[in-house]
Amino acid sequence: MAGKKSSRVIDTFSFDKNRRDSEGSFVNENGLKIFCRYWSIDVSSPRALVFICHGAGEHVGPYTQLAEMLTKENFFVFGHDHQGHGQSEGSRVHIDDLRHYCRDIFAHIDRIKQDFPTLPVFIIGHSMGGAVTILSGLDRPDYFQGVVLIGPVVTSDQDQIGPIKAFFGKIIARLIPQFPVLNLESKYLSRDPKVVEDYENDKLNYLGACKAKWTLCIYHAVLEIESKLSTIEWPFLCMHGECDSLVKCEGSMALYEKAASKDKTLTIYPKAYHQLHLEIEPDGSKARQQIVDWLVNHVPQK
After folding, report:
1. 274 is catalytic
2. What is the rounded CA–CA span in Å between residue 36 and residue 23?
3. Does a structural domain hold residue 50?
4. Which of 40, 101, 125, 172 could form a disulfide with 71 if both were Cys (CB 3.0 to 4.6 A apart)?
């Protein structure tokens, strides 16, 4: 059932107190080992928990710069590589149901909450991770104190997952679920050529074409999200690059316009591309700082 708390627990959960960061893992309900990353482990009394939900094809490692900014503000920041991504097990960027990602997020956070039961929980979701984050918030609307979305996939009017491709995708997904159907060009991730170069040289990133079943799962997810935008009431910050050609900013605009949230912010960065948190300066720094400031301002006052 969507949003159901997993019976699985963290399989390997150890911190090296002599390091600023640590690694761990858990086994999800598909029997796959999920790689976890933790920052700020030396914080004995953090102000809040922040989970980072990365996008398609990437992994949680490149979010270290943002995570370390948050640790300086006394947040406990953590995340994991989604099933089939990075150092986690599973067929590369293949899934049977997008909510398997949501399920693993709740299993992971619930385990951390055992050690910090009274702390508020925030989530940061980028791109596909934004869609996963929104689904998670729809399934458990009172779970997160606040949500941050960076270039999220919100609506189905994306060039990559339009109705025609989805129609053919249904046929291919049923017959050959891992058939490559969609290429995402990394040159459109950021205007910073070093960011693009690092992405392409990172062996933990998946640079192949998106697969039929995965694409269909995304399509079904955004159709659901579109139909439920008006039910969203949780506080959120949504950020999008004006020139993001991988995920259109119109979806973020629709979220802002239709969500019932009383506390909502949308920022469109002029001329910016997809990975706002890794954009050229000064936009990259501005985006990261906006995230930090928003989270700091949304921690409940004791």
Report:
1. yes
2. 6
3. yes
4. 40
